[in-house]
Design a protein that fits this description.
globular, alpha+beta, 5 helices, 169 residues, 31% helix
Length: 169
């Protein structure tokens, strides 16, 4: 029984490279499905966390500034970030936890997040709901202060700095 349980634990989760997984996600979306995608990375902090949260994706009906979208910013390189500007066919994206931006074209947007499963909840927070809209409105206007807010919410000191401090003592 112990071996079966270990095998079951290992089979619960597998990692697939984005370059392989995300084209399949896009294919499923084009077949009319919605897709729940586990989130990886820290670019959408402070409210969406690596390995904890999931995005509920659908094909975009409309694309507007403020939408969280899955975009292919280079061949095989995808990001789930918020649209901060649209200039003709050019789109500017920024992760909520990022200070810098990425760029793509309107045609490179593969999906829109219609909700997020946060903190292990079984019901998604809808991106059209009041909670998400208020959060989005506030957070996008705090851009100049984000660096400090993110550090306060997620304090960290790079290992090399810690290592150098210990070596100097």
């Amino acid at each position: 029984m112990g071996n079966e349980q270990q095998m079951t634990e290992r089979l619960k989760s597998i990692e697939i490279e984005n370059a392989v997984l995300l084209p399949e996600v896009v294919r499923l979306l084009h077949e009319g499905h919605t897709v729940t995608l586990p989130l990886r990375g820290y670019s959408m902090r402070p409210f969406l966390e690596d390995g904890r949260d999931k995005a509920l994706l659908s094909l975009p009906k409309t694309i507007e500034v403020g939408d969280a979208v899955l975009a292919e910013i280079a061949p095989g390189r995808y990001v789930l970030h918020r649209i901060v500007a649209i200039n003709g066919q050019q789109v500017v994206l920024r992760g909520d936890g990022n200070l810098g931006t990425e760029h793509c074209r309107l045609g490179d947007i593969r999906a829109t997040a219609i909700g997020f499963f946060r903190k292990g909840r079984q019901q998604p927070d809808s991106t059209s709901g009041m909670k998400w809209r208020i959060y989005s409105w506030l957070w996008t206007r705090l851009l100049p202060l984000r660096r400090y807010l993110l550090f306060a919410l997620h304090p960290h000191v790079p290992r090399q700095i810690r290592k150098n401090a210990v070596t100097k003592q």
